[in-house]
Design a protein that fits this description.
Layout (H helix, E strand, L loop, with lengths): L1 E2 H7 L5 H9 L3 E3 L2 E2 L6 E2 L6 E3 L2 E2 L1 H6 L4 E6 L28 E2 L8 E7 L2 H9 L5 E8 L4 H9 L13 E4 L6 E8 L6 H8 L4 E9 L12 E3 L2 H6 L9
Parallel strand pairs: 9-13
Antiparallel strand pairs: 1-4, 2-3, 2-5, 5-6, 7-9, 7-14, 8-9, 10-12, 10-13, 11-12
Helix pairs in contact: 1-2
Length: about 240
Amino acid sequence: MERLQKLIAQAGIASRRKAEQLISNGEVTVNGEIVTTLGTKANPENDHIKVSGKLINPLLEKRENVYILLNKPKGYLSSAADPEGRNLVTDLVPPNLGKLHPVGRLDYNTEGLIILTNDGEFTNFVASSKKIPKVYDVKVKGLPNENAINKLRRSIRLEDGFKTAPAEIKELKSTKKNGWFEVTLYEGHNQQIRKMFDAVGHSVVKLRRVQIGHITDKLLPVGAYRLLSPQEVRNFKNLPLKRS
């Protein structure tokens, strides 16, 4: 017996959090009965489980987990669907890999590494972890002074009221007009890096994620993807490695 939200995630229908929403919305049935109580358990070998009217048992029986590392271009939405018809990161991988969803998000105009998978449990673990570093190369307008950067390193309250956790910020080679920084975060507030630098008066000109936990790939072209190795996937369950 497994919790329904876990089974739905294992079937690749949605992350566990989204699966909980589906259950609460009355879109899940077990043996023909609507289930809305979170934590309800079922056995896919004996119980008929449907999500939005579709039986998920066959997906649980023959599904293989897929893990893709994609170098996202600007102008793509980190989602598996969009009512406005915008370009999606899932459009950049072949359909024969099955129905995939992004692990976490990158802003529409942000480039860089993002993982796509059909493994809801993996998605929930990586997206919610506060121990897995995400590393970004950031180009900003103007040259922030050391006092401004130290504010961002310690913590800062953003305009929307969110208080950031301490961030690791290392200055890279800047130009006369633009500062370049390597920023490491362990959280994922919406447009956080852009809002952080806005708060000290230096808007972000270019933003690229270059590392997720121990995963980095400088040779992966923008718009291209590769499969993660089994070892790379397993390593996420260990302590994250700092960027070298």
